[in-house]
Design goal:
Elements (H helix, E strand, L loop, with lengths): L5 H4 L12 E3 L4 E4 L5 E7 L1 E6 L12 E5 L3 E4 L5 E5 L6 E7 L13 H34 L5 H8 L5
Antiparallel strand pairs: 1-8, 2-7, 3-6, 3-8, 4-5, 4-7
Length: 163
């Protein structure tokens, strides 16, 4: 009786060098909590991914995903995803790519509030400049043409007497 070779019974998994991916060894898990929307993609192997719960509804909405090479999940900011290598003895490789941010074109409605704020600032600034000019003018007028107070009147006023 011929003994089967041990190598034939163990799962074979090629470990390619995959640039731009993360390697997840068997028995290891990683938690992803993205700050921006992006795509999680399995590059090689099989991964088990679990979204943070609570999970209600149909069984296919339980939050658990078994993903193979080429399969993707779209994640939103703040979502929590725990990922683990599924195939015992073989690592899994994955990539994380943020989604491109769409740039919104400026519209006239986007400048209404800043224009309103600027108008209000100019009105208040104009009133302040006008009051400043009037105050400086009054001080100048009084110093040039105002009533002259004699030293005697100043002394009386200082001691509480009124002229």
């Amino acid at each position: 009786m011929a003994m089967p070779q041990v190598n034939a019974l163990t799962p074979r998994c090629a470990e390619p060098a995959l640039p731009g991916t993360w390697k997840l060894a068997p028995g290891r898990a990683i938690t992803l909590e993205p700050r921006e929307a992006g795509v999680f993609k399995v590059a090689h192997g099989q991964l088990w991914a679990t979204f943070d719960g609570p999970h209600e509804g149909r069984p296919d909405q339980s939050g658990d995903w078994f993903l193979g090479a080429g399969e993707t999940l779209r994640l939103q900011p703040g979502q929590r995803l725990v990922v683990e290598a599924w195939n015992e003895g073989c690592p899994g490789y994955f990539s994380w790519d943020p989604l491109p941010v769409t740039v919104r074109r400026m519209q006239w409605a986007d400048i209404v509030q800043p224009v309103s704020d600027l108008r209000l600032a100019l009105v208040f600034g104009g009133h302040a400049v006008a009051r400043l000019v009037v105050g400086i003018g009054q001080i100048g007028w009084q110093s040039l043409f105002g009533p002259r107070i004699s030293a005697e009147e100043k002394a009386c006023t200082r001691h509480g007497a009124h002229a």
